[in-house]
Amino acid sequence: MASINGFVHKIKTAVYGKDVRGSLADGLEAINKETEVTTELSEKTQFQQDVLTKKYTEQIADATDITEIKDFHVSGETGKVFQTMGLRGDAFDRSLAQAESKLKGTVNAFEFAFNGQITTRSVLDAVSESEEGTEIRFPKGEYAFDPLVLNKSVWLNFSGSKVLNKGTGDLFTFKGEVSGVTYSLSVPAKRKDKALRLNAQIKDIAPGDLILLKDDTVRHSDGLSDINCEVHEVLFVQGNILTLRDFVRLPKRISLINVTKISPLINPALTHAEFLNGGVGFEYTRGAKVEQFKVMNHVSAAVSFISSYDCALSNFAFSKPALTSAGQGNGVLGMKGTMIMLVQNGIGADLRHTVDCGGVFDGLVDNVHALNNTSSQFVMSHNGFDSDQTYRNCKSYGGKTYGFQTSAQGVPDPSKLTHYGIRIIDCDVQTEKDDPLYQYAVRLSSPVKESFIENLTAVYDDGSKASNGNNAGISLFPVDNDLTLNNVDIRGYKDGVSIYHHKNVQSMDNESVLNINGLKITNAYNAIVNSYGFNKKLSIKGLNANNIHQFIFRMGEGSFDHLHISNIRITNSSARLFITQPIAGENRINGYIGEINTPVHKPINMTSGYKLSYEEMLINQNHVVELTSPRDVMPAQYPIRDGIIEGQKLTLFYSGQHSVQVNWTTRLRTKDEKNLFLNKNRRYLHLIWMKDSWYEV
Description:
- The chain contains seven helices and 49 strands.
- The chain has 697 residues and is mainly beta.
- The strands form five sheets. It has a six-stranded parallel barrel. It has a six-stranded antiparallel β-sheet with strand order 7-12-9-10-11-8, with no helix packed on it.
- The protein starts with a helix and ends with a strand.
- It is 13% helix and 43% strand.
């Protein structure tokens, strides 16, 4: 863009009329040329240029130098008299600078001040007279405005100012529009679908447009509508087929209204501000941006993105809201199908939730700290209709209930709703001590798929001792999880990992497996609790359990289609290895139990009426149980516990000099179906658990 500063300088310093005329002509010519190249000037500025051009090129073209100098003291447009040519030049300087700033897309809000004050009306006037995409810059100061709804894409840059909301709710709401033309699906949409088949020829939607895809799902508790929504960009349209640039995230059933065109505000922004009593909201927007933003004493959310596409919040601090009851006092709120939401580099303190995703897809929350919130610090899903969210480098300190949570409030049965693409990476959670509510570092309340938790550290209080409250490091739904835990360190909770639901649920998925790889549990009552749920699938490869008081594996009611346990190391623990319900019949478990290691190996000294415990059967390497006795020993009726998994192998090795009798029963089948003795002549008995009995092999 050409600079006009040189021309302004010549106008202010010119002495003779011909110099003034020439400089004016040169300056105006530069602006006119710039206008032709870069688009239009405002009508007001153009009128001023025309008046000046006419005045100085026609009316006094032949006047004397002195006359011209005197004439320059008086404005031909307003009649205002300037004491010196310098003051007149300054006024013209400002006029040209304003013209140049508008060419650059920047407006100073002070231009619209009333009696030197920037008021609510000033903001409305500035927005009204600005082109789409204009930066409206506010001089740094303190302002007080009434709440406003803005239907134009502008950038409000407050230059670090403090802004008071004189009303309630959001101070500014940027809002686009939705079309009155709607379409229904002719066939339901599934996750991963890219093409939508509609019930009519598509007329008002073109490639590049945004649509709102939804169905008639409502929240079961109160009938709240529009909870199963997602915003998409259209890639291609042909007849009644609409192809998405992305893919459908959650299933959509056929309803009266499935597809509506959005006419979004493009790239609205708010930056460098400190708000009191209210936040900023974006609805039906694309490319919305908020950065360098502080908010206190707000009621709803500091920043909300509703049915928006590609929005971002960065470098923020939200604290001390006016209320923290249900739905109040949140940090950033994403709702109603917002697609692509970035929340980065910020802190939320003493809120209800720092991040609350009531309906977000493709969300990335990166380097955000949540401190002392009254409820869940990071809500990855509220009603349950969300997917594909990543939380990376986030810290949760002192939260009252959960660090990270997926909730399924939208449905009465959480087993009927699946969360996809939940990822928690390189995050830390520290939970406040002795709160009466249930507390979990991570709480996934319904099945999750395509998900993983990696490099998570979760500490209850200071982690130095086991809590006796209702809490766990990670709480998961018991069935149908396609989830991997990698390198997770949990300290001080009552339970390390709790895989639990309050009643039995049946697995409907033949492939999804919960994989635990590299789990460290320190100072807990139970390392892993797995209760309820039939046909569960669980693989544990690498558990380091230290200072566990009750059980390493607390396996309750239910059954396993697949259970794989290997590379288990137990140290400094008084805990029993297993507690299980009866496993016969429908509770049969299929899988593999590998090495379970303790630092000290001790032979088991048999006494009369002995019955091996699960610990004694499984805690030794390679499932070899070493028996010894100072005398001949008779066992109890059932000397060996039932197997844990189908195909489980067990070897009894006798190292004493006397004998230990092993009774033949229907649950312990020797080759000749007789009692046998282990002694110095027969040291080994090899068994395998098959069809509810141990068989000698």
